[in-house]
Structures are given as structure tokens and as C-alpha cells.
Design a protein that fits this description.
Strand content: 35-45%
Shape: globular
């Protein structure tokens, strides 16, 4: 299941790097403590970027983490947001990371997603694709695609009917797109649903709490890796999902890192 030599190499690299030695939490919160007798609340977490005159991309949507470890997002495309931003396929820095990059001609924001499993008290990174040929499986074409179950066809039809009469309710909304970010395949993760907003000021995550059940009852921690990278870790039990945020602006034909705004 795991590529043991690569995992060991990754752990050694992280453990011996000066950045890793300097990492420490700059803030944490247990959302379990916000799910008591005060009813529904809103937990807001933010990583701010340094000020820039560059035109940076803007996005808003929701994302979810399932109990089996998969991560998905739904992006809302709204008129009036920064024009011309794009999401291009981008190589990840290693086998344990999936990178989502959104950019304009003058500014780009990267969110590197990773997932870890606690083993013997240590967080061990999981491969971005759980099987050796998983990446090939995602792109492999078959002559006989599986038939779509009737229940799914009925649900799709109901969805179209619901949207048909929305009219002014969707003023300025051009589309929504849904995509999977992490395949999952575990049995020990947690359930979370939140809203995200990306803009020139940084990345903001919002989670409603006190909804009942097991939803949004996780521990969240911020770790500032270096001057240009900050990671938000969401964890519960033996499952942890990390989102590392960084940005860069274009200057004289080169991309220059945009520092994380200093904490005040």
C-alpha cells in the first residue's frame, strides 16, 4: 500500500531540514469545544498574504472531507470576479502532495493538499494516489463504460428541474463545478464541510459548528513553515489533512514569492 523507501526518505528530509526544525504552531482550536450548548456557530480561519498591487485570482466555493478520507470541492463561478484567472494542471512537489494552482497573468496562489495517518505516535504522509498505477487508472479508457444507475439518472433529472425555475435567485452565477481532490480509501478519517474564499488578501476557511452528529468536530492548527508558506492542519484521531498556502507575483518575467503576512 505504501512505498516504504519513499516515505522514509520523505520523513528524513522533513526531519532534517532547517524549516522543519523551526516549525511550530501559531494557533490551534478544537471545534469539538464549539459544538456544545451555544447552538450553531461559525469558526473562521484565515491565512493572509502580504499586500500587493498585482491582480490576484478570486474564488469561492465549498469543500468536504469524507469519513473515508476523500476530499472534494464545489466551485462557484460568479460574474464580477477577477477575469482571466485559470486553473492549469500543475506538478506537485512530491508524491505525497496534490497542488491546486489558480493564477492570473500577474499573481498565482498555490494550495498544496496532503494527508497523513498517525502510526506509533508519528504522522506518516500518504501517497497522493494510493495504488502504484492509480494515476494510469484515472486516465485509462475502456471500450464498455459502466451503465449509469437509474437512481443517479433520476437524481440528475431532479437537479435539472430544480435549477430550471431559479431565475433571479442565480443572478450573476454562471456555473458551479465539482471536482475530487483526494481519492480516499481509508476507514478512520473525519467528516467536515466548509466554505473557502481565495482572493488578494489570502485564503479564508469557514466552518459551521454545533450542527449535531459528527460533522465539523475536528482539531485545526496553523503551522507557519517559512516566510512564504503556511499550513492549516485539520485532524481527528489518526487522520490529518493539510492545506499549505503560498503565493507569487510576476515581476520582470519571473515569479517572485509573495510572503505570508506577519502575525500581529
Amino acid at each position: 500500500m505504501f512505498r516504504t523507501p519513499r516515505i522514509i526518505a520523505a520523513l528524513l528530509t522533513m526531519a532534517l531540514s532547517p524549516a522543519a526544525l523551526a516549525q511550530k504552531s501559531s494557533g490551534y482550536m478544537d471545534l469539538e469545544d464549539m459544538s456544545g450548548d451555544f447552538g450553531t456557530q461559525l469558526a473562521v480561519f484565515r491565512v493572509m498574504l502580504s499586500r500587493t498591487e498585482a491582480i490576484c485570482p478570486q474564488q469561492i466555493g465549498i469543500f468536504g472531507i469524507a469519513s473515508h478520507g476523500s476530499v472534494m470541492d464545489i466551485l462557484a463561478i460568479i460574474q464580477g470576479s477577477v477575469p482571466g484567472y485559470r486553473i492549469d494542471p500543475t506538478s506537485a512537489p512530491d508524491d505525497f502532495t496534490i497542488r491546486r494552482r489558480i493564477e492570473t497573468d500577474s499573481c498565482r496562489i498555490d494550495i498544496d493538499m496532503s494527508e497523513q495517518q498517525k502510526q506509533n505516535g508519528e504522522w506518516v504522509p500518504l501517497l497522493a494516489f494510493d495504488a502504484p498505477n492509480a494515476a494510469d487508472d484515472l486516465t485509462r479508457k475502456t471500450d464498455d463504460p459502466p451503465a449509469i444507475p437509474q437512481a443517479e439518472l433520476d437524481a440528475f433529472d431532479r437537479n435539472n428541474r430544480a435549477r430550471a425555475h431559479a431565475g433571479g435567485l442565480r443572478q450573476g452565477v454562471t456555473a458551479t463545478t465539482k471536482s475530487g481532490l483526494w481519492r480516499g480509501g481509508r476507514e478512520d478519517c473525519f467528516e467536515a464541510v466548509g466554505t473557502y474564499q481565495i482572493d488578494r488578501s489570502g485564503v479564508t476557511l469557514l466552518f459551521p459548528t454545533g450542527l449535531g452528529g459528527e460533522l465539523n468536530r475536528f482539531f485545526i492548527e496553523r503551522v507557519d513553515v517559512d516566510a512564504d508558506h503556511s499550513t492549516l492542519y485539520l485532524s481527528r484521531g489518526s487522520c490529518r489533512v493539510g492545506f499549505t498556502i503560498s503565493a507569487a507575483t510576476s515581476r520582470d518575467g519571473s515569479w517572485v514569492p509573495l510572503p505570508i503576512a506577519p502575525l500581529k
